[in-house]
C-alpha cells in the first residue's frame, strides 16, 4: 500500500481504539458495549476498571424525588433527578458534574423545559426531535454542572400495571474522557398502578424519594472538621476581599476628588486655568464627553433601579460625573485667553 493509504488505515484504527474512552457529554447511548440497555446495565465505559469494563460504585449516589407510591391515569408528576458524588456530599473533595439516562419502559410521557439540558436518548425514535416531550428514554443533552434535572412524567392514559423505572447516573470529573475518576450507579424503582395501595386512614398517598448508594453515603454523611474550617476560612477570605475592595476604591475615590478640588482651589488663588484650546477642537470634545456623561448616568440609574450591585452603579455614576467634569474643563480651556505661543 502507498504511504498515504497506510497512514489513513492507522489513523482509523487508532480512532476506533480511542473512541470508547471519549465521554458522551450529550447523553449515553441507548445500549452499552455488549448490546445491553444502558439504563439497566449501566455506563460500563466509565469508572473503576477502565473503559468498557467499568464497574458500578456506591460512591455515585443516584436519587429521584417526587415519585408517587402509585400513579393515577393521565396525572403529571414532577420528578427531580440527582446524581452526586458521596465524597462531595460528605464535604470532601469530589465530583460535582453528572449525567443520566432514565427509562420508564416507554410507559407514560416525559416532558421538560428548556431550562434543563434534557433530550430524548440517543438511539430512540425521537432522538432528532426538537420538541421537549417523548415517551422514550431520556438523558442529559450536556453534562450538568450540579448533577440535577427536573422532568415531568405523565402517567399512561389507562391502567397499564406497575411502571418500572431505571436510572443510570454517572458522577464525572469533567475531564472530557471516560476514566477512573467517574463513578456510576443504577437506581431502579416501580410505581404501582391505580387503586392498588391504600393506607389505614384513607389519606391521600404522598410522593417519596428513592435513592441508591451505601447507607453511610445516604444517611450518615457528616461534615468533617476540616470541611467546617475550610468553609470558615472561605467565608473569612470572601469578607476580607469584599471589605478590602470597598476600602480600596473608597480611598482611591477620596484621593481623586481631593486632588481635583485642590487643583481647582490652587488655580483660582493663582488666577490660572487649563491651557488654551481652540473652539474647533473644543466643541467635538464637549459633545463626546456630554454624550458619555448622559449615557453613563442613564446606565447607572437603570442598574440601580433593577437592584444591581452597588459597586457597579456607583462606579457608573462616578464615571458620568467625571465626564461632566471633563466638559467643564474643556469649556474653561476654550474660554482661556490664548498666549502668543498658542496663536503661533
**What name is given to the CATH topology of the largest domain?**
Immunoglobulin-like
Principal-axes shape call: elongated
Query: What number of structural domains do the residues give?
Result: 3
Low-confidence stretches: 1-5, 7-23
- Helical amount among residues, as a percent range? 25-40%
Helix-strand sequence: HHEEHEEEEEEEEEHHHHH
Strand order of the largest sheet: 6-4-8-2-1-11
Secondary structure class reads alpha+beta
Average pLDDT confidence is: 79
Largest sheet: number of strands, sense, barrel closure: 6 strands, antiparallel
CATH homology superfamily name of the largest domain: Immunoglobulins
Descriptive report:
The protein has 344 residues and is an alpha+beta fold. The chain has 3 domains: 20-220, Immunoglobulins (Immunoglobulin-like), CATH 2.60.40.10; 223-270; 273-344. It contains 8 helices and 11 strands. The strands form 2 sheets. A 6-stranded antiparallel beta sheet has the order 6-4-8-2-1-11. A 5-stranded antiparallel beta sheet has the order 5-7-3-9-10. Strand 1 (60-68) and strand 2 form a beta hairpin. Helix 6 packs antiparallel against helix 7 (310-334). 24% of the residues are buried. Residues 1-5 and 7-23 have low confidence and may be disordered.
Amino acid at each position: 500500500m502507498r504511504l498515504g493509504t497506510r497512514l489513513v488505515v492507522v489513523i482509523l484504527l487508532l480512532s476506533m481504539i480511542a473512541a470508547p474512552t471519549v465521554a458522551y457529554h450529550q447523553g449515553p447511548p441507548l445500549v452499552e458495549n455488549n448490546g445491553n440497555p444502558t439504563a439497566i446495565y449501566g455506563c460500563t465505559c466509565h469508572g473503576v476498571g477502565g473503559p468498557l469494563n467499568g464497574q458500578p460504585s456506591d460512591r455515585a449516589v443516584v436519587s429521584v424525588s417526587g415519585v408517587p407510591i402509585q400513579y393515577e391515569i393521565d396525572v403529571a408528576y414532577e420528578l427531580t433527578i440527582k446524581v452526586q458524588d458521596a465524597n462531595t456530599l460528605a464535604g470532601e473533595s469530589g465530583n460535582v458534574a453528572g449525567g443520566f439516562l432514565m427509562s420508564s419502559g416507554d410507559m407514560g410521557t416525559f416532558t421538560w423545559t428548556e431550562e434543563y439540558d434534557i433530550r430524548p436518548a440517543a438511539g430512540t425514535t425521537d432522538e432528532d426531535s426538537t420538541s421537549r416531550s417523548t415517551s422514550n428514554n431520556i438523558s442529559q443533552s450536556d453534562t450538568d454542572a450540579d448533577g440535577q434535572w427536573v422532568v415531568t412524567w405523565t402517567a399512561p392514559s389507562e391502567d397499564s400495571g406497575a411502571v418500572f423505572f431505571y436510572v443510570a447516573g454517572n458522577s464525572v470529573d469533567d475531564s472530557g474522557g471516560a476514566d477512573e475518576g467517574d463513578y456510576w450507579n443504577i437506581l431502579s424503582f416501580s410505581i404501582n398502578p391505580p387503586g392498588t395501595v391504600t393506607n389505614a386512614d384513607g389519606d391521600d398517598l404522598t410522593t417519596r424519594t428513592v435513592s441508591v448508594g451505601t447507607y453511610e453515603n445516604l444517611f450518615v454523611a457528616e461534615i468533617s472538621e476540616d470541611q467546617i474550617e475550610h468553609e470558615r476560612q472561605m467565608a473569612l477570605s470572601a469578607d476580607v476581599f469584599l471589605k478590602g475592595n470597598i476600602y480600596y476604591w473608597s480611598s482611591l475615590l477620596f484621593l481623586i476628588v481631593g486632588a481635583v478640588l485642590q487643583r481647582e482651589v490652587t488655580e483660582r488663588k493663582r488666577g490660572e486655568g487649563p491651557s488654551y484650546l481652540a473652539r474647533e477642537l473644543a466643541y467635538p470634545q464637549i459633545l463626546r464627553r456630554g454624550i458619555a456623561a448622559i449615557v453613563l448616568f442613564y446606565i447607572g440609574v437603570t442598574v440601580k433601579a433593577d437592584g444591581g450591585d452597588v459597586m457597579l452603579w456607583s462606579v457608573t455614576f462616578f464615571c458620568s460625573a467625571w465626564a461632566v467634569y471633563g466638559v467643564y474643563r474643556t469649556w474653561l480651556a476654550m474660554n482661556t485667553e490664548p498666549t502668543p505661543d498658542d496663536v503661533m
